[in-house]
Specification:
mainly alpha; two-stranded antiparallel ribbon; 2 strands; about 50% helix; elongated
């Protein structure tokens, strides 16, 4: 049994709802009823007499079925008074049961803002992201990805790197510096936000859930015991002292 996702009007969760609801409608063969272009597939009114032996009119009858099905799912999904208002606004004398594409357009107009407003909101959310001192950097990375994926904007990689360096630099300065130098030296390019977060997470795990600057009282000029790694899972670990792969300090 397919479960219809619910939407309670939280704009930050609309992107997820959009994806999940469309998936349900795809399974039920009515996803196209959500598109604005679907209007031309419908007959003039819900009670138009259609001859199913005529290919064009048969297609219109199928469109009516898809529209009614999509409207039923929307009625289950929109659980707030505002959501019900969208359903009512989509109704007319010709379609007293409503037109699904009108409901969906209203939702998109409300929860998918124009490019400038959307970009401002997204940049503000990126600014508010925080990495706690003892937190697994992967969790920070997951929150970062959610903010990126919650909008349809194109975020420059340098902006994401700046967010990671801003937060990660407080406790993972050495790690970020070593990873950046390694990528620059070996691949002659700048490290990505994903690569920096991965390096931070590796250091967090290796140090038993501590950041790399907790041991910054160690004198780097002193010899450090290095555990050489055999080929296998540990062969890809990178030393955060020298930046080389295959061992760690």
């Amino acid at each position: 049994m397919t479960k219809v996702p619910k939407f309670a009007g939280n704009g930050k969760k609309f992107r997820v709802f959009d994806s999940q609801f469309r998936a349900v409608c795809t399974l039920k063969n009515c996803s196209e009823a959500l598109d604005e272009s679907f209007k031309k597939e419908l007959p003039a009114a819900f009670n138009t007499v259609l001859n199913v032996s005529d290919p064009a009119e048969k297609k219109q009858k199928e469109a009516l079925v898809k529209n009614n099905l999509a409207m039923s799912y929307l009625a289950f999904a929109l659980i707030t008074d505002e959501g019900l208002d969208y359903l009512e606004e989509a109704k007319s004398a010709n379609f007293p049961g409503g037109e699904a594409h009108l409901v969906w357009k209203s939702l998109k107009d409300e929860y998918v803002p124009d490019d400038q407003i959307s970009m401002a909101q997204q940049l503000n959310e990126l600014t508010e992201l925080k990495l706690k001192k003892d937190e697994d950097p992967k969790r920070f990375g997951q929150r970062l990805i959610r903010v990126v994926n919650s909008y349809r904007n194109t975020i420059d990689e340098t902006q994401l790197v700046a967010v990671v360096v801003r937060e990660g630099g407080k406790n993972y300065a050495n790690c970020i510096r070593q990873e950046s130098r390694y990528i620059k030296r070996v691949e002659t390019r700048n490290a990505t936000a994903k690569e920096l977060i991965k390096a931070m997470a590796e250091q967090w795990r290796i140090s038993g859930g501590r950041n790399d600057d907790e041991d910054n009282d160690i004198n780097d000029s002193e010899p450090t015991d290095v555990a050489l790694m055999n080929s296998g899972a540990g062969a890809n670990l990178k030393c955060f002292k020298c930046g080389e792969r295959g061992h760690y300090a």
